[in-house]
What does this fold into?
Amino acid sequence: MAELTTPFNLNLNLTELERITIDTEAIATDTDLSNIFYFAEIPQIPQARESNLQSLISTIEDCKAWETTRCEQSVQSQIAKGNLPGDSSVAACRKRTAYRSKVLNVLRATSPWIVNIDTGVTAKFKVPATKPLNLAVVNTLINIEPLTANLPYRNFLKAVAAAFNPKVEMVQPYYHTVIGYQYDNVIEEFQAVLLTVTFEIEIGLTGGTIEFTSTPATFSVDLWDGSKPDPATTETGRVLNLQKSLTVLAPPANE
It folds into this structure.
């Protein structure tokens, strides 16, 4: 893969990144990794369709491993160059999370197998200065469109927001990928739908704000299969994703 130049003012030379060796155990202690998260919903389906669904899930897991590996290689490269802090301070963690988000945006904007459906939603919401602030953050976050229609992910967000540590003038960035699997009756195969959700929670003395974006996309298995990397070069991401992924069984369609 060649060098990527994107509107995000970030160039990623994937060939060079692949040569960077990562200490997986050391990175696993990086607390801001938990702010980059994959949330997947598996539908309840007839046994006859299980093989097709499992094949697609395996492909998505391969792509996730590739994304995470290249992202962490880029982070380690910037730390080595002195462009990113490598310590465990809150400020350092926030900078690394912001950079990881930027890298993931670049990878998805330049990956042909990620096909955006539309421009998505970008908005800013006010968090009222009510006590406890955690509850105010939860109520604001779960009532944002298009999240209101996704009960499992909303329940997950409740746990994320409830665990948020509200301190004066604190900023917390998050980057979530919500993965859904839908059956296409025309081609008689499952399709993966990705919703990239980013939000930054800022809390102060008078309440706070949530800056929110969501971008829907579909995943092309054919385009991924045409250029997928050697699995041996993405093992780091596969290991790291174990601690930043959650898969749940989706409720029946009539619920």
User: Anything to note?
Assistant: The chain is about 35% helix and 25% strand.
